[in-house]
Design a protein that fits this description.
By secondary structure, the protein is an alpha+beta fold. It has helices spanning 6-9, 20-23, 54-63, 74-80, 102-112, 120-136, 144-152, 156-169, 184-201, 216-228, 230-239, 247-257, 260-266, 298-301, and strands at residues 32-36, 42-47, 67-72, 91-94, 97-100, 274-279, 286-292. Helix 6 (120-136) packs parallel to helix 10. It is globular, with a radius of gyration of 20 Å.
């Protein structure tokens, strides 16, 4: 098993992610080992950042599946990369099966938990939604730095016009297919409108993309919304005082964010920090720098257990 070879590499690893921020960047980070629950059924290995392991770990936290996570810094990853399946991470061990590739890991965890429906038709629909989330939120369509640059450059009137138009038309996923969206902000709003329409077409008493229960597609959408559309929403609702017409998306976000397991996870040291790629101060190239961490729990502030 690949976890056996990590024991020596991670001998001095920490048990939470809070110290990563002090280390500054992925390139200078040291390993982090996280245990959630007793007698972990799953073991996952990734890097000391969110990236491709963020969804699989959220799925395990959401469902209460005990797991053991090993997060490697750059130097430690170099030592063991060649021994991983396909030479890639994340890698998951669950129920005697070892697999790589993040989407395969997501589906395997979903099949082991209640995040994948039993009915074949619903399974197909959930997978369709998952692929749609991955495709529409691909980086080639959305760039938060471009949106920020557009706003900071004084093009606020353009943003105001775009957001006003979306606020006026309400939910209209067809906008995304008309070719009228020309800026990152417009593309983002079009994507949001598409998913708002999908949720609107479902049962009006449910908040999920498919069926009456949350699935891995819902959690994937939640993370994309959290990571990629925070700025446009703030731009519309905070800076310009306009309410964007996405109540269904907001309801899905709140349902997941307020789940006790999710709140516990986000306020712990178990989640890796977000990173931003930028040039090193010494001119030696680029690295992934840590830009935020969850608030330190009261127990940790006083030396208690996390």
């Amino acid at each position: 098993m690949h976890f056996a070879l990590l024991l020596g590499v991670c001998a001095a690893a920490r048990r939470d992610a809070f110290d990563l921020f002090a280390e500054g960047s992925y390139g200078s980070s040291t390993p982090v080992i996280v245990r959630s629950g007793n007698n972990p059924h799953a073991k996952i290995t990734y890097l000391t950042l969110r990236g491709l392991a963020d969804l699989p770990v959220l799925m395990m936290e959401f469902t209460g599946l005990p797991y053991h996570a090993t997060y490697l810094g750059r130097e430690q990853m170099k030592e063991v990369k060649h021994k991983f399946p396909l030479g890639r991470v994340p890698v998951l061990e669950l129920d005697g099966v070892t697999i790589a590739q993040s989407a395969s890991i997501v589906r395997h965890i979903a099949a082991t938990t209640e995040l994948m429906p039993q009915e074949h038709e619903l399974k197909a629909k959930v997978d369709m939604m998952f692929e749609t989330v991955q495709e529409l939120f691909a980086d080639k369509w959305f760039d938060s730095d471009s949106i920020k640059e557009q706003h900071n450059s004084g093009s606020g009137f353009e943003n105001l016009e775009v957001i006003t138009r979306f606020s006026a038309i309400g939910n209209n996923g067809k906008v995304a297919a008309t070719g009228v969206e020309t800026t990152p902000l417009e593309k983002t709003l079009s994507i949001l409108a598409t998913f708002e329409d999908i949720l609107e077409e479902g049962d009006r008493y449910d908040v999920w993309l498919v069926g009456k229960h949350p699935t891995y597609a819902d959690l994937a959408l939640f993370l994309k919304l959290e990571a990629k559309v925070e700025l446009p929403l703030k731009l519309g609702e905070k800076m310009l005082g306009l309410a964007l017409p996405f109540p269904k998306l907001s309801a899905l976000q709140e349902e997941i964010r307020n789940h006790p397991n999710v709140q516990s996870y986000f306020n712990s040291g178990r989640r890796m920090p977000r990173v931003q790629k930028r040039a090193n101060d010494d001119g030696s190239g680029h690295d992934y720098y840590y830009v935020d961490l969850p608030p330190l729990p009261e127990a940790a502030k006083h030396g208690g257990e996390l």
